[in-house]
Amino acid sequence: MNDNRKIGILTWTRYWNYGTLLQAYAIYTAVREQGGDTCLIDYAPSSKTKLCNQIRYLNSPSLYFGKIRSTLYDRLIADRSLLASKREKMRHFIENRTAMTATASTPEELRTVTDGFDVLLCGSDQIWTPVSFNPSYYLNFAPDSVRKIAYAPSFGVNRITGAKKKRIATLISRFDFLSVREEQGRKIVRELTGKDAFVAADPVLLLPREHWESVAVKPQMTEPYVFCYILQSEKVYPLAKEYAQENGLTVRVINESRKETGASHEEMIADASPEEFVGLIRSSEAVVTDSYHGLLFSLLFHKPVKIVRRFSDRSVYSQNSRIDSILHIIGKEYAVTDGWINSDSSVQSSLDKFVKESGAWLASSLGDFH
Question: Do 6-206+354-365 and 209-347 share a fold?
């Protein structure tokens, strides 16, 4: 391995979501372990860049205005001190556990901060979503001379329609090594380009359970509990409460939905750090969640988990394919399990095989230059 190579990783580093930041940390760690001078590219698209993309690429107006509503909620309704505390912990986590470039807010600044890099890698998470399409996440700014790797990016949808199909097909064709996170993404790539993309494990799975145990901070509670992590679905808390009552447990809740769930003040956890989030799953008796990464960490820590589907399969914006893809890989189809997964030996065997193959693919894509 050429340890003098400069490797830059472009993923979401400024979305205040536990799964997003933990996967960013994980792909950085996994790539760095392969050798080379590795860093995350700290890309924070400016409001002007976002608006230009919105207009030029006809991105979803509902998503755009939804983000505005979320921002107004955070500023006018949410407990601002707790919100600030949480975001400070999240920023501290990613800045202190990784090396990062200077912040880039425009495509021009992306070219500047990545000048001289030998390898650029994009992934994972839904950075390739056509709903809020941004060509920078396809490394469109990278020169042809730079090795370009896509590690497990997700489209986040079942299909791509309209004018974006041709544009995305052109961008994908520039990659030297191409993988996606879901089987549905593989079908999209094949339809758009005729190429066969490798289906790779989400980066959090690339790091062994022992690594995440060293990251986890144990919660300061003594009573056994079911952990309830809500991104959107109103079904999650009642299911967690029912499980807790049936099994003599308490409930601990992180609610990102900005909706009332019925959870008591004592059950709520408002400003957990990423390390504490991992610890809450690790120390729980079971997990109920509508979060993809909540599911993955439950599998890593061998926890019984109920995964709730947030979207209708008929919706063009459905993100259920990522859940279906990982459940298919571990041999636990949703229709059969209704979302309840017990991490038995067959699940772990399937997961271990998937992770081993994904790690080998990543190592091969980062292999020495000739």
Answer: yes
- Report domain extents, the chain: 6-206+354-365, 209-347
> For every one of its 370 residues, what pLDDT tens digit does the chain have, with 9 covering 90 and above?
557 899 999 999 999 999 999 999 999 999 999 999 999 999 999 989 988 998 899 887 665 555 555 665 566 656 788 999 999 999 999 999 999 999 999 999 999 999 999 999 999 999 999 989 999 999 999 999 999 999 999 998 888 988 899 999 999 999 999 999 999 999 999 999 999 999 999 999 999 999 999 999 999 999 999 999 999 999 999 999 999 999 999 999 999 988 899 999 999 999 999 999 999 999 999 999 999 999 999 999 999 999 998 766 565 555 678 899 999 999 998 877 888 999 899 999 999 999 999 999 999 999 965 3
Residue 83 to residue 352: CA distance in whole angstroms: 37
Given a contact cutoff of 8 angstroms between Cβ atoms, the answer to whether 289 and 295 are in contact is: yes
Interatomic CA distance for residues 307 and 281, integer angstroms: 14
CB 203 within 8 A of CB 26: yes
Task: Please give the CATH number for the structural domain made up of 6-206+354-365.
Answer: 3.40.50
Query: 209-347 has which CATH code?
Result: 3.40.50
pTM: 0.93
- Please tell me the number of Cα atoms within 13 Å of 212 on its side-chain side: 26
On the question of a cis peptide bond just before residue 124, with omega within 30 degrees of 0, the verdict is yes
